[in-house]
Amino acid sequence: MSTNNNKFQSRLDAILKAEVALHINGDWLELQVKSNDNRLTNGALTYAQYDNVFDETKSSYSFVGVSEDGAIVNAYIHDGSNKIGRGYGGDSFELTMQDGSHKVISGPWSGRPSVHIVNSGIQYTEVRVNDTLYGFSKEFIEAIIDRFNLNASLELACRDMEIELQVTNNNQGGK
């Protein structure tokens, strides 16, 4: 068993089934996971603020949160001010920052994982858990691929440095 599997053991045990499947739009492959166990996606995230290299005005930031074990990743784009943005219907999110402080951002945008990868260097992508998308780190996805003997690999695609799940052959089965 790899060290990744040990690091993520509790989360891996929460997975009933994992498979590589064609995305609902049919344009790309995605990892799909079945689980009825909250251990898979639960846990507090700690956020860091990164410059948004795509914003020429330098008025917005990536706020990227990672779980303690490094498995779960979530991210927002926001200017970091008290101003209410238009994303998420103006809803507010309280973020626990790396230094222990709390920051409230209102109306952020989520942004594609590829945007936050470039801004933060944290490699992750979205995985479909039942019918909901969650951000999983590259390391955690590799542990899932290993645990379920999926014939797939993860590579950084040239397109905006987004992590793209690429199947190594036509065998797309799962356990």
Write up what this structure looks like.
- With 175 residues, the chain is an alpha+beta fold.
- The longest helix is centred in the last third of the chain and has 10 residues.
- The chain has 2 domains: 74 residues, no CATH class; 76 residues, no CATH class.
- The strands form 3 sheets. The chain has a 7-stranded mixed sheet. Strands 6-7 form a two-stranded antiparallel ribbon.
- It starts with a helix and ends in an 8-residue tail after the last strand.
- Please, how many helices? 4
Strand order of the largest sheet: 1-2-8-9-5-4-3
Question: Helix/strand/pairing class, anyone?
Answer: alpha+beta
Helical fraction: 10-25%
Low-confidence stretches: none
Total discrete domains: 2
Distance between the termini: 17 Å
One letter per element, helices H and strands E, the order comes to: HHEEEEEEEHEEHEE
- Sum up the overall morphology in one term: globular
Report the count of strand segments: 11
Q: What's the mean pLDDT score? A: 87
Radius of gyration: 17 Å
Question: Per DSSP, what share of the residues sits in E-state strands of 2 or more residues?
Answer: 35-45%
Summarize the biggest pleated sheet: 7 strands, mixed
